[in-house]
Write a structure and sequence with these properties.
Layout lengths: L7 H21 L3 H34 L2
Length: 67
């Protein structure tokens, strides 16, 4: 990772924020199509955040295994 790359925590925070924005937009959706789109966006952000959490845990396990 270079100095400009965001860390896992920052990426998780970004995904959490994107999920929140999509959930709020879902609540304001006027059409079923718009609601479906926002629901998919929120689900994708949650999925990516969960995958980042798994990555973080795997990296911790790998680091701990070297000790």
């Amino acid at each position: 990772m270079t100095g400009n790359d965001p860390g896992v925590d920052e990426l998780k925070d970004r995904q959490r924020a994107q999920e929140e924005v999509a959930r709020e937009a879902l609540e304001r959706a006027v059409t079923p199509a718009e609601a479906a789109k926002q629901s998919r966006r929120a689900d994708k952000a949650r999925y990516l955040r969960e995958k980042l959490q798994e990555r973080e845990e795997a990296e911790k396990d790998a680091t701990g295994a070297d000790d």
